[in-house]
Amino acid sequence: MSTKIFVNLPVKDLNRSIKFFTQLGFSFNTHYTNDQGACMIVSEDIFVMLLVEKFFKTFTKKQVADATKSTEAILALSANSREEVDELVSKALKAGATIPNQKQDQGWMYGHGFQDLDGHLWETIYMDSKAIQQDLE
């Protein structure tokens, strides 16, 4: 059995966040979605739990970071092509995201990212396996 990952992120407005990520093409598991949180499906083994901030706080004694002012993590997703990287970032911009950094093109690796409505940083990266193999030879 493969290991699954559930990333938990605090959000200020759950419905707004669901709408944002739906516009990016993500879907949600309705069995694990209610007024306190939503289970966003990234892949067969990767899920992001968007949790209302008040509910998120019940899981930790630490102060919850304000992602618009500090970075708690950068969530990186793989892409199948450079075009897929650009498409996701374009969708994010249209849905209200901002761009914190310029795209990076290192030949074998191409990436770009966005900051979501709650300030969380997302990267999407395409790695050209053929170019990587050539570098190793």
Mean pLDDT, to the nearest integer, reads 93
Number of helices: 4
Unreliably modeled segments: none
Structural class by sheet pairing and helices: alpha/beta
Q: What gap, in angstroms, lies between the N and C termini?
A: 34 Å
Radius of gyration: 16 Å
Helix content: 25-40%
DSSP strand content: 25-35%
Number of domains: 2
Shape: globular
Tell me about the largest β-sheet. Answer: 4 strands, mixed
State the strand order across the main sheet: 1-4-3-2
Question: What would CATH call the architecture of the largest domain?
Answer: Roll
The CATH superfamily label of the largest domain reads 2,3-Dihydroxybiphenyl 1,2-Dioxygenase, domain 1
Order of helices and strands: EHEEEHEHEEEH
Number of strands: 8
Give the CATH class of the largest domain: Alpha Beta
CATH topology of the largest domain: 2,3-Dihydroxybiphenyl 1,2-Dioxygenase, domain 1
Q: How would you describe what is shown here?
A:
The structure is a single chain. The chain is α/β, with parallel strands linked by helices. It contains 4 helices and 8 strands, in the order E-H-E-E-E-H-E-H-E-E-E-H. The strands form 2 sheets. The chain has a 4-stranded mixed beta sheet with strand order 1-4-3-2. Strands 5-8-7-6 form a 4-stranded mixed beta sheet. The longest helix is centred in the middle third of the chain and has 13 residues, at 82-94. The protein is globular.
